[in-house]
Amino acid sequence: MGFSDKTSGVKRRFLRHGVLAMALFLLSGCASDGVASESGLAPLQKGVASYYSDRFQGRTTASGVPFDQRALTAAHKSLPFGTKVLVTRRDNGRQVEVMINDRGPYVDGRVIDLSKSAARELGMLGRGVAPVELSYVR
């Protein structure tokens, strides 16, 4: 009889802590101002961005839509298609919001491949690559 009383007490405490943790998680999301890094949360990822060459214009992306250099889109290795990401160039502070619609980049050390329009917004067309920080847009 004592064993089941201890077990039910542990279950109640576990449930109570789980509910509290979920409530805190949900409240923290409601308090954000739209961008993870601006709300005090750690950035999603830091690394090097590159951009697609013109030869990919019109080709089908991994999400099934044709690639358009004029759209503000990007490729990422693991983020779900449709995810919106704020890309901040770390050396000049310029930012652009893009939607993930493809997979890549396939070059070591790179974290995101941008459309030409997105790369233009960051001022990286001349160099071709730039140090960036990625943050979720909520």
TrEMBL record:
Main localization category: membrane
Domain of life according to the entry: Bacteria
Membrane-topology annotation of the record: Lipid-anchor
GO terms of biological process kind: cell wall organization; peptidoglycan metabolic process
Gene Ontology CC: plasma membrane
Database matches in PROSITE patterns: PROKAR_LIPOPROTEIN
CDD domains for the chain: DPBB_RlpA-like (cd22268)
EC number: 4.2.2.-
InterPro entries (UniProt xref): RlpA (IPR034718), RlpA-like_DPBB (IPR009009), RlpA-like_sf (IPR036908), RplA (IPR012997)
Domain RlpA-like protein double-psi beta-barrel, chain residue ranges per copy: 46-133
GO MF assignments: lytic endotransglycosylase activity
First-level EC class: lyase
Signal peptide (from-to): 1-33
Keyword annotations from UniProtKB, A to Z: Cell membrane, Cell wall biogenesis/degradation, Lipoprotein, Lyase, Membrane, Palmitate, Signal
Subcellular location field: Cell membrane
Similarity comment: Belongs to the RlpA family.
Role description: Lytic transglycosylase with a strong preference for naked glycan strands that lack stem peptides.
Name recorded for this polypeptide: Endolytic peptidoglycan transglycosylase RlpA
Species name: Halomonas eurihalina
Gene name of the record: rlpA
